[in-house]
Amino acid sequence: MNIKIKDLHFTYPSGLQALQGISLSIEAGEQVAIVGQNGAGKTTLVRHFNGLLQPTSGSVMVGDWDTKQNSVAKLASRVGYVFQNPDEQLFSRDVETEVRFGPRNLGYSSEKMDELVKRALTLTELSDKTGDNPYDLSPTWRKMVALASVIAMDTSIVIFDEPTTGQDAVNVARIAHVIAELKREGKTVITITHDIDFCAENFERVIALSKGQVLLDGPAREVLGQEEILSQTYVDPPQLTRLGKKLGFKEIVRNQEEFLDALR
Amino acid sequence: MAFVNLQNLTYKYQFTKTPVLQNINLQIQEGEFVSVVGPNGAGKSTLCYALAGFVPHFFKGEISGSIEVAGVESSKSTLDEWVMNVGLAFQNPFNQISGAKYTVFEEIAFGLENTGVPRDEIKVRVDEALRLTDITELADRSPYSLSGGQQQRVALTSILVMQPKLLVLDEPTSQMDPIGTREVFSVIRKMAEGGMTVVMVEHKMEWIANFADRVIALKDGQILLEGKPNEVLTSDLLAENGFGLSRYTSTAREAKKQGLWKKENLPVTLDEAVKGFKK
Question: Which residues have CB under 8 Å from A13's CB, separation 6+?
Fold first, then answer.
């Protein structure tokens, strides 16, 4: 399922013009990272994809649905959204109930629901915590509960808003694994992140936003190599990209494998 | 004598089975910038709470050993005395914003108001703090209308404005953009050079190595390793214990195996990596 955004403008009631003419399309099965300065409009943009926000002008189409003509509840069957702060979305008394809530509301059969919940819990390594209250878990695991509860909805599009914030290396690897699995299943994954190394290692396409507009949009290798343009939106290239450049490599390297190949 | 002195500190929350901090001994000098690293669940936030007086004054539980800051023993002090010396920026800024103020300016003035600072001085200090962290343009916005990273800057500024002698920061840049992160590290460095003692929990190894004086590696409530940033952050012990590493460190370690990194020491920063890889 694709997303088509045409000349999207959004102004908050306070008068803040958060999005100022964004046009782009995201194809089914793409893995897209959105980067950019704090306040650039990243969260405002993705909140248009599931109808949490409505365009001030312009349009957002999710498949054949215009988000202006469809409710958030309906759009939830196509677009899953993991909030930046898990505490904003968790409310059930135990992990299993929390994860079951989404698929139950989408009206799946009970067999399908069992299967989806089981898969989501396995993928997020929560299978041994199903009876725990999410708020008794550490922030790390609460984040995984938030991920599981959205993955269990089996939507074609999944949005992660800063999934790696405050996570240690082991959990970042766990989240990368979840994203790789979703990719394998053909899902569209859209992720907001400030972790540029994580971005370089897990995403094929990168969109850099600045002051409510698209600054750069293209293959990760091209976008992440543009040091000067990225600095306009307070983003540094990945560590190994910066290192490769300093060492005078001809090509732009994004990860360890590419770096070591270029070094030989 | 050390400005911060933790002696045999062991602490267990009221409803947990095992201690979160176990026999911590830690001395920090005045004006030192110390960074604490460790996997999730290592006890980093609890250590912050212990330094900031929340443990044992707010969170109950079992505590033994001692916490001393500026020559005062925590158990012999009260929280309202303690906060005159120590400021803590929370891991999650959503939990720190007071909810009682309409604008960022007022939010940052909140602590000063509560400690009886004269009105004229509040205005000067808030303006100065807003400039320091580069958020003057957010002054009239509602704290709740801000993005996550902006809110985090406000939370940090509202502590900096108090000019605490000991500044405790629990992942203060977790939601910030990359260049903003570097700027915040640089501001904190300057505060330390001005005599403020800083303890900062962080995962961003490259910037820790560039700006901190010393690193404490915490695991399972105990100090696994401490020392100069480059020594600690390149240690095999960290790699084996699930700590995050800078890409420079992990890539050079792999390169070393393949004979492509010739130096004895591994790099943490860009400069160190450039020097080591240059042919």
Answer: none
